[in-house]
Protein 1
Amino acid sequence: MGRRIAFISEHASPLAALGGADAGGQNVYVGEVARQLAAKGFQIDIFTRREERELPEVVTFSNNIRIIHVNAGPPEDIPKETLLQYMPAFKADMIRFMVQEQLFYELIHANFFMSAWVAMELKAILGVPFVVTFHALGHIRRIHQGSNDRFPEERIAIEEQAVKEASLIIAECPQDREDLMKYYHAPAEKITIIPCGVNTEELYPLNKSMARSLLGLPYNERILLQLGRMVPRKGVDNVIAALAKVKNGDTKVRLLIVGGDADTAAELARLQQLARELKVGDKVYFAGQKSRQELKYYYAAADLFITTPWYEPFGITPLEAMACGTPVIGSNVGGIKFSVADGQTGALVPPKDPDALARKITALFRSPGVLREMSNNAIRRVNKLFTWELVARDMQAAYERIIGSNVIARPTDFETAQSISL
Ligand code: UDP
């Protein structure tokens, strides 16, 4: 019998469709980390809020992984900003399940601040230690979003308390660690940097012409790809504004935007309106949400992947693009400045600066040799530093610092990873 670990991910289930308002990187992270740890012999239960009445309580996700749908609040999709009130019910239902099944977990891995609140309660009641990955920090969100941030005031106090009570804090990149130390006074020795990863069996290089032909895209255009949740902080408007300024002779430049669902209809409408106003409505294509199986074709079809958020706790999409051999132009922020090697696997630009982005796109389109080299470098860098296998190896080592082990796993030295160019 493997060691039993509970993941809590209150709003982000690995079973959800991705790319709307609230489902994205955290959903992928929880599913992929669990899968890799299960392959190492851990038994993992992922506790997530029931968002549909019809869902069974327990779903077998894969070998050694179960998803437990917890009753907490109405069984429907609810914006994550309003979920904190249901966390006492989440805790109570989770305990009911554990008692009913006579389960004891050696460790809890909390994801996001509300799960951390539940983990703190379980620690107090049952004595189970926890590690936490915040995925995003309330302080940072407040700085960037101001009064548009609709999370409750208590968020920051809960994060501060979780920093005190967690046995270990997983920072996703050096910026995340700095933020945890600066804004939350997290002690350095309590933080370990473990980045996100990419599934190289799902996302890998493909022939560009083949990908375009499968998607019905033209061969004789330059294609920029933007892919992710359609929320303002992702800066999709910045990419549209840059498109209007890109100079590429007679060759048409198309911007393909993947992501967005009914919940983000207002944001999609705003982006469409902006494209019309900037007279690039005929060059911007909204493709909607895509499944994991389809993503590689979109990444491979593009000449460049663009992501220019205002801030980014990690950002899995640049890794996915690089795994498919597509160079990335990203904002020089958060996890992106960690994953994208400027000038080697793509380029870094300031956020909210369409002129700078347009200049970079124009320059790279004029240098096909550089683009080819960046593509090769991107594949190498991702495979060397950012696979879920590597993430899980480090995660296992982190867990073992808390629960002990006979097997000593050696963690990747991500402290120095920034200086590794490829
Ligand atoms: N995604 C997807 N289909 C879509 C849009 C997005 O599968 O239509 C996935 C994307 O591939 C990535 C995740 O959603 O794995 C977004 O993660 P990221 O870390 O880039 O951003 P976050 O959602 O955490 O802000």
Note: Residues 18-19, 24-26, 28, 227-229, 258-259, 289-290, 292, 295, 314-317, 320 surround uridine-5'-diphosphate (CB under 6 Å).
Protein 2
Amino acid sequence: MKKMKLVIAAVLSLVVLAACGGNSDTKDSSAAKTESALDAIKEKGKLVVGTSADFAPFEFKTLVDGKDTIVGSDIDMVKAIGEKLGVEVEFMDMQFDAVLVALQQNKVDIAVSGISATAERKKSFDFSTPYYNPPQKIVINKKNKDSYTSIEALNGKKVGAQKGSIQEGVVEDQLPDSQKVSIPRVPNLIVELNQGSIDALVLEETIAESYLSQNPDLMIADIELTSNEDEAFAIALPKGQDDLKKEIDSILQEMVEDGSIDQYVTDAMALADKNTEE
Ligand code: ARG
């Protein structure tokens, strides 16, 4: 009888062990089914990138051999990443306020569009290591140089910002008594300012400088804004894709450190000066 109990106990423990083993097996196979984004990108041989090509020198359109082409430092940067990953890069151009929506809906693999990695956006997306961090600036007409010299001077004035950009927040928080005007595309903001239908606009410095070189009647105002150190440009990634993030981070980190990114910006700045179509 004792022996019998022992045998039963042994059999039971085997069953329990088998069940445990079975459990971990199930876990493994379900993990294999939800393929990593990095593997998926490598398998299809293509990295699909969401961008808003209205943001020289980071991404803009110009004629290359007579063909309308998306160019810029972000574009060169992603092409270099694609090369390192051994995949082709395909850009999907859209309005800026649609870029992160496209990423959320898995219509693109990553979003690269001079995107500031804000705490708010980090709730919904992961971000790569930061690669550029230009300060916020106010752009005005040269004819207002002597009157628009302080935040208060813009009270009640129309101040433009790109729709969906953090510049909307800059206007709301730092120019609270001005009238915010949200406009979908940066080149249209510039047109409105040139025409005087808005009085000022907020852009990050590098972009402001690029558009200014095409628009001799505009200038950067001598008004100090606060820029958030923690909101540098970064590549937006789907949440939880750690292997994709790791791979992109290591490539990007190297490009930041060896000066490639700065070189891409300098080159794109020259290209935008020469031949901006938008
Ligand atoms: N850095 C700003 C933001 O993330 C503006 C980015 C606009 N980018 C563009 N390609 N238009 O909100």
Note: Residues 11-33 have pLDDT under 50 and may be disordered.
Protein 3
Amino acid sequence: MKVGVFDSGIGGLTVVKSLLEHELFEEIIYFGDTARVPYGIKDKNTITRYAIEAVEFFKNFELDLIIVACNTVSAYALTEMRETSPCPIIGVVEAGILATSNALKDKKSNILVLGTKATINSKAYETGLNSLGFNNLQTKATGLFVPLVEEEIFSGEIIEATFKHYFEQISVPHAIILGCTHFPLLSEALQNYFGKDTILIHSGDAIVEHLRQKFDFKIKYKEPTLEFFASENPEALRAIAKSWLQLK
Ligand code: DGL
């Protein structure tokens, strides 16, 4: 299978990492809209317009599937993207909700949902979790995490100050949904802050779990073909991909 992976920037590389670890695809085409990141502070109309443009871009590749590796786009624009796409499209929000429900036996578990302002305002996670019987939720828009990750700042004083700013009123949850694909890069810092008993739900692992339920993956692709595109400075994105994904 040939898959397209889309994010507003470099965050979706955390999803590519999971896809590579599980050796699911023969060919992966990544597109990051680096010229217009962040999406998380924009409104539905703008996010949808950009997302439809990404579908147009992917039409050059005869894909079997598009994975929207961006929670913000998944929360707002999947329906509109599907209307113009020649291939199926799946998003990370639905996958994250199912993965959370699979990870937590107790419906009373306290779940902290982190995401961009747009994702949190959409209430996509809350609605999905409530419908599965999870009602003990805390939600927090932590948009500053996006530029920090884009700057490759994953620990240290700035991260500690940002956590203090966002989490002062937050009680220690049983699980945290990393509802933005940039956030897994802060996993270690979050785990140190909240303690190792808190489960972290990662969009990449969630999408792999979801894909395995939907499709029958018989072949393993140890060395898939990878191509990286960006709307601005693709060389910078390729350099980050190379280092994060430990590519040769
Ligand atoms: N990586 C995107 C997400 O999963 C958000 C980053 C942005 O604000 O563009 O929501």
Note: The domain at 2-91+205-244 is CATH 3.40.50.1860 (Rossmann fold).
